[in-house]
Amino acid sequence: MRRIVAMLACAAYGIVATVSADPNVPRTVRLVAAAPVGSGLDLTLRTLAEVLQRDLGAAVIVDNRPGGDGILAAQFVMQAVADGGTLLAASPAQMTINPVLRSALSYDPERDFTPISMLSRVPLALVSSASSRIDSMATLIRRAAADPGRIRYGSASSTFVVATEHFAEKAGIALEPIPYNGVPPVVNALLAGDVDIAWVNLPPVLGHVRAGRLRVLAVDSQARDPSLPDAPTLAEVGVPGYEFEVWVGAYAPAGTPPALVRRMHAAFASALGDPEVRKRLTSAGIVPVASTPEALLERVRSERKMIERIARTTGLAPR
């Protein structure tokens, strides 16, 4: 009966079920993402799922649960049975930003979750509409300095508020946030001229950039992104010292057996090393990155201190 239920669940997600070859691995592994279908995170997980299910001998499905700055997805995984059947694809919003900027949070990243591996780094791009008068970083800084707070930026979530306010601090300018519920509405606002600029992750805007509808003023990586080789880095356009970056990591509920965590880590590391997986992700503007569970834990601890510092220096207050 359990096998039939698993097969039906996977059929609903368009993924063929298989019987787990490892008795310690559940027959179905659910990857929970706080992002909609078609997003960069969704693409990452669906690309990995194809390889993971062969390695694990289990059906791997992607469960999209957007909303609430990732809190809904985190709560769902936190409350799941710790048997490896429900994993969280977490971002800085859930693991380092919410704990700093939310005065009351229903979960604790270290207490309630077990790190498995980094999955990816998602480069951010500062973009404007191709029809906008803001055609370069120099123009943006000049106009923002001449009229503080007049330049409007679209914000898809707290992650992008932190990214933009940190950038504004480094550039010595003041910007006016306009909140939206997700990246697609921000992109639409840019195209319509409702906002002047926005920091956005690359996958949803690459098509618009390549089609000439959006203009990239800078990317947040240390080196130029291979998917946009003509887009300068922040350092190249005179804004050094930017620290924040968006990443994705895999987590299990607290209490997951260590042997199962190791098995899942090995499967993710193998999938992220697959040449076809790497090719598909990098062509979409996503950088595949694996890590040990310990390295992911240390990254979160270090980044939380950085977010606390950014919150202090930019005036971002808990809400």
Describe this structure in words.
This protein has helices at residues 2-12, 40-56, 71-78, 92-101, 109-112, 137-146, 158-171, 183-192, 206-210, 258-272, 275-283, 293-314, and strands at 28-33, 59-64, 86-90, 113-122, 124-129, 152-155, 176-179, 197-201, 214-219, 246-253, 287-288. With 319 residues, the protein is an alpha/beta fold. The protein folds into 2 domains: 2-122 and 245-314, 3-Layer(aba) Sandwich (D-Maltodextrin-Binding Protein, domain 2), CATH 3.40.190; 124-237, D-Maltodextrin-Binding Protein, domain 2, CATH 3.40.190. The chain has a 6-stranded mixed beta sheet with strand order 2-1-3-10-4-11, sandwiched between helices.
Series of secondary-structure elements, N-terminal to C-terminal: HEHEHEHHEEHEHEHEHEEHHEH
Q: Report the C-alpha radius of gyration, rounded.
A: 20 Å
Largest sheet features = 6 strands, mixed
Question: How is the CATH topology of the largest domain named?
Answer: D-Maltodextrin-Binding Protein, domain 2
* Molecular shape: globular
| Integer tally of domains | 2
Question: Under the CATH scheme, which architecture of the largest domain would be assigned?
Answer: 3-Layer(aba) Sandwich
Find the structural class using helix and strand composition.
Answer: alpha/beta
CATH homologous group name of the largest domain = Bordetella uptake gene, domain 1
Mean pLDDT: 91
- Assign a percent range to the helix content: 40-55%
CATH structural class of the largest domain? Alpha Beta
Number of strands: 11
Distance between the termini: 46 Å
Low-confidence stretches: 1-20
What is the number of helical segments per DSSP (H or I, 4+ residues)? 12
The proportion of residues in beta strands is 15-25%
Spatially, the strands of the biggest sheet line up as 2-1-3-10-4-11
